[in-house]
Design brief:
Number of helices: 3
Number of strands: 5
Number of domains: 3
Order of helices and strands: HEEEEEHH
Structural class: alpha+beta
CATH architecture of the largest domain: Beta Barrel
Distance between the termini: 55 Å
Radius of gyration: 35 Å
CATH class of the largest domain: Mainly Beta
Shape: elongated
Length: 188
């Protein structure tokens, strides 16, 4: 049971990492229906946390129709792109305010995806055999408890010493129903 719980924990933990990696990856990929252009980092927005400090870049770019859009990146890092540097940007003409900074390290989401997949495999390696074993035990227990139609087993010649009158058996080892209705009652 502990292997099943541990495997389930690893499966869930791996799934969280995998989902995070896929989410991060989707945020640094160009839009399928979007336009890719260049932008310029114009400022930084610092974020202070208990574990570490991160910085999101603020960038500007021009749309095809000539509008200047200023956007704070949705991903913050401890090593931001310097102010004044050029970055690649993807935006949808219908929603330029939802632009994406494409200059993030492309390997970063794959790190999450790889760790998540590996941890999920570890969880499956622990949980699947435990679940199969548990299912086999449960199936066997159900057969032992109620799978024999309320009858006793047929004695073998080695069991000839079983005394007459043992519940559910005749002296010849023939199975009899456990209820009180027998052939005599049906003849009346």
């Amino acid at each position: 049971m502990q292997r099943l719980l541990a495997g389930g924990f690893f499966l869930c933990f791996g799934l969280v990492f995998l989902a995070a990696g896929l989410w991060i990856r989707s945020g640094i990929q160009p839009y399928d229906d979007g336009i890719v252009t260049t932008g310029t980092v114009v400022d930084h927005e610092d974020s202070y946390g208990s574990d570490s400090d991160t910085t999101a870049v603020i960038f500007e770019f021009r749309t095809e129709d000539g509008r200047t859009i200023r956007k704070t990146d949705s991903l913050a890092t401890s090593d931001p792109t310097s102010i004044g540097e050029t970055i690649e940007v993807s935006y949808r003409p219908s929603d330029p305010d939802g632009a994406r900074n494409l200059s993030h390290a492309q390997w970063f989401p794959w790190l999450f995806i790889g760790i998540g997949s590996f941890v999920m495999l570890l969880g499956a390696a622990a949980a699947v055999p435990a679940a199969i074993g548990l299912a086999v035990l449960a199936f066997g227990a159900s057969k032992a408890v109620g799978g024999n139609d309320n009858r006793k087993s047929v004695p073998t010649p080695q069991d000839a010493s079983i005394p007459h009158g043992t519940s559910g058996q005749s002296e010849f080892g023939i199975l009899l129903p456990l209820d009180d209705t027998g052939p005599q009652d049906k003849l009346r």
